[in-house]
Design brief:
single chain, alpha/beta, six-stranded parallel sheet, two-stranded antiparallel sheet, globular, binds tricarbonodiimidic diamide
């Protein structure tokens, strides 16, 4: 049993029943010309965590921890995109519109690819999800249960949107979740801070947080 000096109190996990879930480290959010920028955000903050997420991936692979990735992406016909989601924002830059990296937030387009430095290895499942949470309308829960996973280590973007939504979905499904503080980022630093504070408040009401170096020291 490994023990991480996490907040608000130590997080314990067995590597064989733990998965690393890397959320939405796709060009759509991290590079100019994708969905993140279409929403009016400065995407520069997000690329800064790529080296830490890479180190976290390498660590998990070295310790034979199950690794899964997600992408937020819709079918080319947008049949899985709720009209309410598609209507949001500038009409010229909506989901499905043509951007410099292909159609925005559409599965199979260059912008929907995970950034090259974090490319999934063969055998690492990639969940393509139509929502912010990775459990809604995906087979993620079944895939974790088939693998005997009870503990989730979370990383990716953005902290208060897809990462927090997924962490809350996982927590309600009975997973013990650890969010890696320097392997997640937001376009809004104050939202990241608030998310870290709120998930670990009230005795880890949603889960635990720790920096990557603290996790690495546990194994
Ligand atoms: N806009 C924003 O902060 N995030 C998203 O739309 N998706 C994810 O967080 N992946």
């Amino acid at each position: 049993m490994a023990e991480v000096a996490a907040q608000p109190y130590p997080y314990r996990f067995e590597p064989r029943s733990t998965a690393l879930l890397v959320i939405d480290m796709q060009r759509d959010f991290v590079e100019p010309g994708g969905f993140g920028e279409a929403l009016g955000n400065d995407v520069g903050r997000l690329s800064a965590i790529v080296p830490t997420v890479r180190a976290l991936l390498d660590w998990a692979r070295r310790h034979a921890i199950t690794v899964l990735h997600t992408r937020e992406g819709h079918r080319p016909d947008l049949a899985d995109c709720p009209p309410a989601k598609q209507r949001r924002g500038d009409p010229a830059l909506r989901i499905g519109a043509k951007g410099p990296m292909g159609r925005i937030l559409v599965d199979g387009e260059p912008g929907n690819d995970i950034v090259p430095a974090l490319a999934p290895l063969a055998g690492e499942p990639v969940i393509v999800k139509p929502g912010k949470g990775a459990f809604w309308a995906t087979p993620l829960d079944e895939m974790l249960r088939w693998r005997g996973v009870t503990h989730l280590i979370l990383a990716g973007v953005t902290t208060e949107v897809c990462v927090q939504t997924t962490m809350r979905e996982a927590n309600d499904r009975g997973y013990d979740c650890l969010l890696i503080e320097d392997a997640t980022e937001s376009y809004f630093p104050e939202f990241k801070r608030a998310t870290l504070d709120m998930v670990r408040a009230q005795g880890a009401i949603v889960g635990w947080t720790a920096p990557f170096a603290t996790l690495r020291a546990s194994l």
